[in-house]
Design goal:
7 strands, Rossmann fold, 163 residues, seven-stranded mixed sheet, alpha/beta
Length: 163
């Protein structure tokens, strides 16, 4: 994983820091990347996705909401994003039936809330962003070569920003 650390921790004690993380993450995304977002309700998963979408060029006029009931939202930015929420799914078959892996194979970036149990069904090699509220922070970890490169890039941008 090109010397990537096992994980990094980013304090998110202000909205500005969360938006900085979103911009840093947006800068290192490439087609077919997988980002898993975890954390309790209210930890900021959708806020982080919204900031990321804005950083990738989505207009402020376009609402970015949690796909809790629709399961998947498609968001066209400079990259095609699929924002999914898998909280209500209970079986691997249900995840496969959403067709996310084939869309990832086509180059879509997957941003998946509540996706940790389904990483293999989503194609693996994920950057995992675990958000917590006490303390308010993000723990970022990788489990593959590409996500390891992303983590190393994020660590470098964090050192420049003094996370």
């Amino acid at each position: 994983m090109n010397g990537a650390p096992p994980y990094i921790v980013v304090p998110l004690d202000t909205r500005r820091r969360t938006l900085h993380l979103a911009r840093s993450l947006a800068a290192c995304l490439r087609p077919a990347d997988l980002v898993i977002l975890s954390g309790e309700l209210g930890a900021g998963k959708t806020f982080l996705v919204r900031g990321l979408c804005r950083a990738l060029g989505l207009s402020e006029r376009v609402r970015v909401t949690s796909p809790t009931f629709s399961l998947v939202h498609e968001v066209q930015t400079r990259l095609m994003l699929l924002h999914a929420d898998l909280y209500r799914l209970g079986a691997a078959r249900e995840v496969r039936d959403l067709g996310l892996v084939s869309r990832r194979d086509d180059g879509c970036v997957l941003l998946v809330e509540w996706g940790e149990p389904w990483m293999q069904e989503l194609g693996g090699d994920a950057l995992v962003v675990s958000l917590s509220t006490r303390p308010r922070q993000a723990r970022l970890a990788s489990n593959g070569a590409r996500s390891g490169d992303m983590l190393a890039q994020l660590q470098a941008s964090g050192q420049n920003a003094k996370w």
